[in-house]
Known about the structure:
The chain is an alpha+beta fold. It contains ten helices and eleven strands. It has helices at residues 17-35, 66-77, 102-108, 138-156, 197-215, 248-251, 272-289, 324-334, 339-346, 379-385, and strands at 6-12, 40-48, 51-59, 92-98, 122-129, 162-173, 181-191, 223-226, 242-243, 295-302, 311-315. The strands form three sheets. A four-stranded mixed sheet has the order 1-6-7-8, covered by helices on one side. Strands 4-3-2-9 form a four-stranded mixed sheet, with helices on one face. A three-stranded antiparallel sheet has the order 5-10-11. The longest helix has 19 residues, at 17-35.
Amino acid sequence: MKNINLFTSESVSEGHPDKVADQIADSILDECLKVDPKSRVACEVFVTSNFVLIGGEISSKAKPDYKKIVKDVLTDIGYTKKEYGFSVDEVEVEVRVQQQSSDIAMGVDAKKDEEIGAGDQGIMFGFATNENDGYMPLPIAIAHKLVRIATNKRKSGEFKHARPDMKSQVSIDYSDVKNPRIATILMSIQHDPDIDMSVFKAYVEDEIMKPVAKSFNLNDDFEIIINPTGNFVIGGPAGDTGVTGRKIIVDTYGGAGHHGGGAFSGKDPTKVDRSASYMARYIAKNLVAAGVAGKLEVQLGYAIGRPEPVSIYVDTFGTSKYDGHFIVDLIQKVFDLRPGMIIKNFSLTKPTFEYHKLTNYGHFGRPDLNLPWETLDKVNEIKSLL
């Protein structure tokens, strides 16, 4: 390995077993919120060969048709053939859902938005960097685009013999920080049996890898690795068990930023694992866009039932002329960090987006979705305080 300063991130497609579980969980959340914006949802999903188990705690006026939701998700992904070992016509669905704990409800069922407490304790991180227009780290941004493009081509029929389960991995050489380069792109793509692998790999290289690299104005002389085991026919839940919330680094910053440990999918926005993580990204992105730092990470800490965070921490990685105390004070002046106000300001219980669309290709830096925590509407206010 010639390069000495490499950073790597990975992404997975919507056919990955963990992502199948995430999509089902968030589709259930979407259905609940459509009927009852005050729904309390903590949904967990387990998938394996032709079997889906739905568990968790849900209190809602909605009565979701769980089996229909599962079948709709599998159809959309493309798990429609029996030979995949996990298909819409063969899958068995078991539901073990109960009501939310009344002890938790005490903290989040306040009448006024500003009084709503956090649905649980926890630490949440937000991250932003100015290394590209999306304010996301390059490795995860490229990794997401690779599997998104490959999936779109599979669904359109252009990418022949590809199946739903895919992974990507991108290594960026930061030896020259001002001129990063792609060192390696790895893709593992599930495929039909008995195919011409040389043709399959040539398509991945010429129609997916190199065009994606070009779209970021980066080099195309990187090392290429495609299906390194030589065969990837058995995939999806038939090849590997999937569970909700197991791809949290894929969902966030690809390891470039910290993660508090809480997953997003299947949780209504009173769970600060979700809403406060969105808020932390909103803070970090607006601060970087305003010129406070070139790279910045925010940590928020919450206690169950309490509206105000118990802690705020900022790290600028040596890219700011402002000290941490000043930036924390700035955050408190500009941003309302109470869970109820986050929910209200982002319309998280009546979203303009659908939560299940966030489960693939990250919850941040999404140019394809109009997400409220990605807006840069605080930049001018921040600049006026600098």
